[in-house]
Amino acid sequence: MTRETKDLPNPVSHYDSQDYLGFINRRLVEQVKNALLECCWQDRPETAVLEMARQTILLADHLVGQFESINRLPEPIACGPGCCSCCCNQVEVIPPEALLIGHYLDQHFPRWKESRLQERLARLLHKKAGKTKVELAKMRRTLPCPLLKKRHCSVYPVRPLVCRAMHALSKEHCQMALASQDRTEVPFYAHRYEIILSVSRGLQEACQALELQNRPLDLVSALYCLASQPTPLARWAAGEEVFR
């Protein structure tokens, strides 16, 4: 991921969620998986779970930053504070990511389980029930992320990996894509998806190797599960199926 070139190829103009496999770098996946498996699970498994999620976030951010410091971007990335068009996309997370977000909410918003956030989660789940991914994409304008607060992410330091992959080269393109109900193309840089999706896959495969619940989760559903049951972090680390 550190090829020495001065210029990147032109941005990719369209990304289909069904083509995730095309962005997976198996060498990076294996490196991430093996590094995570070296975490100490015997003494403090709950701490290890949170550290596992934190380390994948730090690694993804570091690799993207390193790549972009070596390779010149043909066009600047237009994303900035208050720009939240992509926050209507339906996000999936690996269980440790969801648990880290839940821990962050517990630390910074201790009453979140009894707050309006829980009501928003329930309403969103009701809206999404029985819908296919294509149907959800078409109605995404009505499904903003429940963690948005005044157009800003309330859990930004621990936002999911896939959120870190999302970006655009034009705010206008983002707004047009959100306003439309079709698959309006939004240019993006493929290297961000390759790095971040590969790190995410490494996290998933590490969980699988540890025989822990590891399938990608709908973020809304995962947060609802966390808010509706006791000690989810300890139970997941013990091998229970916390997310349903």
What's the helix-strand series? HHEHHHEEHHHEHH
The unreliable regions are 1-10, 12-18
What about the largest sheet?
Answer: 2 strands, antiparallel
Record the strand order, biggest sheet: 1-4
Cα Rg = 18 Å
- Derived from helix and strand composition plus strand pairing, the structural class reads mainly alpha
Strand count: 4
Shape: globular
What is the overall pLDDT average? 87
| Residues in helices, as a percent range | 40-55%
Helices, by number, come to 10
What is the terminal separation in angstroms? Answer: 36 Å
Number of domains: 1
Estimated share of beta-strand residues = under 5%
Structure, described:
The strands form 2 sheets. Strands 1-4 form a two-stranded antiparallel sheet. The model is unreliable at 1-10 and 12-18 (pLDDT under 50). It has helices at residues 26-37, 45-70, 95-108, 116-128, 133-138, 161-165, 171-179, 190-209, 219-227, 232-237; strands spanning 92-93, 148-149, 152-153, 217-218. It contains 10 helices and 4 strands. Helix content is 49%, strand content 3%. The two termini are 36 Å apart. With 244 residues, the protein is mainly alpha-helical. The protein has one domain (21-237).
